[in-house]
From TrEMBL:
Disulfide bond keyword on record: no
GO molecular function, one term: transferase activity
Keywords annotated in UniProt: Transferase
Entry EC no(s): 2.8.3.-
Top enzyme category: transferase
Region called Disordered, residue ranges: 1-22
Pfam families associated with the record: CoA_transf_3
Protein name: CoA transferase
């Protein structure tokens, strides 16, 4: 039996639990691990693609070990970025494992990997080799740096990109989430979608390259552009904004809240709502540029007033006046307070599991569709290998040799 034709699913269904969505019928061979690549392929799965996640048969994706906490023996970190996929446990260094990987790539519309430079070529999974068997493939590589063989991890990228330099107050602070991985995953997904569209409209297969460093630098947007325009190093403003005032946190009598008065009209509305219309007519604060230059005068005035009432009182008052305002919440509090922020899947070992929705919806992808839970290590190995044309005896032999692994579990 030959490998499936690219763009078709042997089962006729997407592992995201639906045949609907703009990427229905698109097959993705995912050799990535940790966050940037898995996040990108999870987004593709959300759009209906069939994603086959390939992991090492012993330790699997590195993020499986990044706990506690765990649910049903699975690390929360891993669970966050791997729903909607089928899992294959495969040793790509084993000769028979490489043959499985070769067939999988030959039938894929998209191949995505984040091996260190040179590793994919040694394994026969580099773009040139894959494209010989599959000329129309979209091949995506995610690296830490462009033109640099060093491994890239979010923390070091945050340091070297300047992101930590502008975050915090008295010292550099790392944002609380691996934001450069998330940005890289989004960039990879967007570029892959562009390449798939080009191919669907008569173009050829394409190479997509994403680096964590360049994703971080592009994610600095206005801060980076301001540094280029001014020729001076960016400064650290903590919870304030370098070029918009007032746009920051304030301490109420019982906690913290944020005001985002992004233009002159909102500033005047703010001043009227808090009973300080005089600030709104003060020539020192007439325009945003004036307020930026005189923030050291304005902010203490506002801070002294905001300390006299509770955060709930201020947020209610300002929200009613139409001023952008928000009380600072905890993560769990925010998830519980936001309608539709989470959904549930049935996991084979964790049972009913809450997961966080992506930040977009499409009419062609029903919100209530069934989505496959993040796979156990090797949960679908035999299923996928059978679809690729391997006989049961061959699969058993490969399992005995350690080239592949099928998960053994009892559902809850």
């Amino acid at each position: 039996m030959t490998a499936p034709t690219a763009g078709t699913s042997p089962t006729g269904a997407s592992p995201s639990g639906t045949t609907t969505g703009p990427l229905a019928g698109v097959r993705v061979a995912d050799f990535s691990r940790v966050l940037a690549g898995p996040y990108a392929t999870m987004l593709l799965a959300e759009l209906g693609a069939e994603v086959i996640k390939v992991e090492h048969p012993v330790h699997g994706d590195d993020s499986r070990a990044w706990g506690p906490p765990h649910a049903g023996g699975e690390a929360a970190y891993y669970l966050s970025a791997n729903r909607g996929k089928r899992g294959v446990a495969l040793d790509v260094k084993h000769p028979e494992g490489r043959e499985v990987a070769r067939r999988l790539c030959a039938g894929a519309d998209v191949v995505i990997e984040n091996f260190r430079p040179g590793v994919a070529a040694r394994l026969g999974l580099d773009e040139e080799t894959v494209r010989r068997a599959n000329p129309s493939v979209v091949y995506c590589s995610i690296r830490g740096y462009t033109g640099d063989d060093r491994p890239g991890f979010d923390a070091t990228i945050q340091a070297e990109s300047g992101l930590m330099h502008i975050t915090g107050e008295d010292k550099p602070i790392k944002p609380g989430v691996a934001i450069t991985d998330v940005l890289s995953g989004l960039n990879a997904a967007v570029a892959i979608l562009g390449a798939l569209y080009r191919r669907a409209t008569g173009g050829e297969g394409e190479r997509v390259e994403v680096s964590l460093m360049n994703s971080a630098l592009s994610g600095l947007v206005n801060v980076a552009q301001s540094a280029l325009v001014s020729g001076t190093e960016a400064a650290r403003y903590g919870n304030a904004h370098p070029t918009v005032v007032p746009y920051q946190t304030f301490a109420a009598s019982d906690g913290w809240f944020v005001i985002a008065a992004g233009n002159d009209r909102l500033f005047r509305t703010l001043c009227e709502a808090i009973g300080r219309a005089d600030l709104g007519t003060d020539a020192r604060f007439a325009t945003n540029g004036d307020r930026v230059r005189n923030r050291d005068v304005l902010i203490p005035e506002l801070s002294a007033l905001f300390a006299t009432r509770t955060a709930a009182e201020w947020t209610s008052l300002l929200d009613g006046a139409g001023v952008p305002v928000g009380r600072i919440r905890g993560v769990l509090e925010a998830l519980r307070a936001t309608e539709g922020a989470t959904f549930q899947v049935e996991h084979p070992t964790a049972g009913t599991l809450d997961l966080v929705r992506t930040g977009f919806t499409l009419d062609s992808v029903p919100a209530d569709r069934e989505i496959a839970a993040p796979p156990l290590l090797g949960q679908h190995t035999r299923e996928v290998l059978t679809e690729l044309g391997f006989a049961p005896s061959d699969i058993s032999r490969m399992e005995e040799a350690g080239a592949v692994r099928q998960a053994a579990y009892r559902s809850t």
